[in-house]
Amino acid sequence: xxxxxxxxxxxxxxxxxxxxxxxxxxxxxxxxxxxxxxxxxxxxxxxxxxxxxxxxxxxxxxxxxxxxxxxxxxxxxxxxxxxxxxxxxxxxxxxxxxxxxxxxxxxx
Length: 108
What we know:
single chain; mainly alpha
């Protein structure tokens, strides 16, 4: 039996959610309803999107975290990219944050 931590995110389920949402939006557009009912359909669709995508994220949280950890470890091992603008060291990131604070800028 495989551990949930060893499998990747179930992207096909996310694609299925997006496909179903697109179908609901197309069907909602083709319905001949009043503008108020159309807004209710759209708001219901938005709520369903948030619930389904939130459930997908919750069920795939471990796999998504593993993806981030693998990317971080790869970046840490590659000295060619560590310390660059895309992957600053902790000291560089802190310096940028502090200087942007004193300049009243929003940090990136």
